[in-house]
Structures are given as C-alpha cells and as structure tokens.
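Any chance you could type out some protein's one-letter sequence along with its backbone structure tokens so I can compare the two?
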Amino acid sequence: MIQIDIDKAVHFVEASGDLVLSALAAYAAGKQGAAETLQIIKAYQRSDGGWTKTDKDFRSDLSVISTTWVALQWLIWLGSRQSSVLEKTVAFLKNVQKEAGFWDEPQEICQYKPPFWMLPGRYENQLWLTSAVCCKLKELGREGDVDFEKALNFLRRGWDGKRYPVFSHTHWMVMPLLAMQNTGGSLDHEIILGCKTFLKNAIENGEVDPGDLCAITYASRLAGEYAKDLYELALQGVMKNQADDGGWITRYPVIHRPGITVEALFLLKSQGETRPSN
C-alpha cells in the first residue's frame, strides 16, 4: 500500500514562501482552522470581488476569470459557502458574464502578456473558462446567481461529438458539471460519457500531465456513477506521484508544484487520508 507523507507535503508547500498556499496546505492537513485560513487567502481578493495571483501563470493585480474560478475552488475546500468573500466573488462573476452566456478575460489582460490560454476572444479559452466557472458555481449551489442556462447552452454548442477544442481541462469541468445538472437529456449524456472517454484515453496514452490527475480524480468523484472507472484510474496516479521532496510531480513549470501539492492534500483530506500531527 502506498504511503503518503502529509507532513512532508505541507513542508514542501511552506518552503515555497507562498503564505496563501501554505495556509491552505495547513488546513488540509488539519493543522489550522477554516476561519483563520479564509482570513489569509482573502488577501488575493480585489475590491471588485474578483481574484488575482491564485494562478501563478498570471501575477498582475487585475481581476481575471482564470484566477477567480480557482478562488471558488478554494472556498469550496474551506466550506466557506456563507461568507462575504464568496458573495463578492459570485457578484463579480455575475457582473462580467457576457450577454451570450460565456465568460472571457478582459481586454486589459493583454497589456500584461498573459499565456495564450488566458487571451480574450479565443473560443477555446471561452469554453474552458465558462466550464470552470459553471462547474464551481454548480458545486456551490450558486448557479441561480448567473444566467446559467445560457452558459450551459454555450458549452453544449462547443461539443463536436468527440471532444472540446484544444484543452483537456474543459473535459474535466464539463463532465461533473453536466452530471450534477442531471437533466437527463441525450446530448448531456453523450457529452458526459464523451468527456470521460477522452480523459481515460488521455491518461492511458500518457497524454495527461501528472499534476492534472488530482483535478481529474476530483472531477470524476463529482460525476459519480458516470466516471467510477476514471476515478479509480486517476486516483492511482495521484497516490504514486508524491516526489521525495514531498511535493507532487508535474511537467508544468516548477512554480506550479506547490499549488498542485495543495490540490493533492485536499483530495487526500476528502479521502480521509490526512490527519493532524500530534
């Protein structure tokens, strides 16, 4: 049986010097309370309710969707469903939803030279961002705060019968989103199973970054019976991917390892694998 060294993982995150990620890691390991952790992480929330610096690919002080959906995931992990921090975040997302139902990055992001997956006006980016926002809002039970049906229809139109364009990430957001939505519609059923098949094949063919297995495992559990086999496959990878230094392995730049390690810790917490130290 594979043994995970929780303390070593927490120490790895702490060594990164990121106080927000360190607080999240401490909470996941049972070393710190939710209220204290929330006070620390909200340093990344801006006055308009959006968030910055949650994704290390973009460090500027600008509220963008790529960083705000990550904050929603953090709030889910902390169980912060009745906080002013969440209310401000949801209000921000409501205010910036496009008339056609999707989310996109603001044009201002371009002056900071973001990576291509954050550029506004790109259809594949709009699909990814919309899938992430909708999945987290659905998980929080806050889908009624936005024009959710327009957003879902935008995502449905993006399915080409086999996959979503460019990113594997969109698949692990849409799969649990539509499973939780549970409309029973034939197209939704096709998309859920199609996303699962795409992800399973990608894992088996070595086309998925090891660091993404945490997100896929989490998403597969949310999808329930639809994705039990994908869940088991992805979880096996997570359990064997802790490196000797305590962090989780990835082919992404090293700046992402602390964040991925935090994801792994929360996944293990939900599995009952983390315990507070004596």
Notes: The mean pLDDT is 95. The two ends are 23 Å apart (CA to CA). Residues 200 and 230 are 6 Å apart (CA to CA). The chain has twelve helices and no strands.
